[in-house]
Specification:
By secondary structure, the chain is an alpha+beta fold. It is about 30% helix and about 20% strand. It has one domain: Spore Coat Polysaccharide Biosynthesis Protein SpsA, Chain A, CATH 3.90.550.10. A hairpin with a 4-residue loop joins strand 1 (about 10) and strand 2.
Length: about 200
Amino acid sequence: MGADKLLLPVPPKGIPLVRHVTERLLPLAAKVTVVANDPGVCAVFQDLGREEVQREREWTPACTLVNCLPDDTPGNGPLGGLATGLRRIEGWALTVAGDMPLISAACCRYLIDSSDNGCDAVVPVLNGQVQPLHAVYSRRCLPSVERALAAGMRRMDSFWKEVRVRQVQAEELRPFDRDLLTFANVNRPSEWKEALALLSQG
């Protein structure tokens, strides 16, 4: 991208991309944990939290607390980030990447609502490919995640054989996001340009 993509400005307010993603999901949670090793990324959250957001169809004080912290063990990639986050929660965690400008709160809500005691993770499947960075995980996954990391494994699915994974097919999510743009991430300038054009359409 030629720059840190998480800090790319999103119009019209020009807020950094990672904060834009977070703000889109604020109505879903009372606590948000951003795992980032760059102090510049954490700096964009200093004044965010405990704001009034639209929860369901009414505006209410959400008292959302946003924390930003580095990986407990840097160098372990997204799986290490998942472990860092799971150590700080009880129950379930929605996990998303910070470079998904069109993330859909409605799709994420569906994934959250699909979680129960019958599974330990809820993972979407798009075109036959699992989407482990746009998923829901129970803290029950933490021991398996830690064993995978201790064994030198870094893939997000490296611990799945030890837990119960519920897959959600993409078609289940289309009622909430017809074109499944929620899965779009940005790695190239052309993708960023396309995302900005879609955002400008509302």
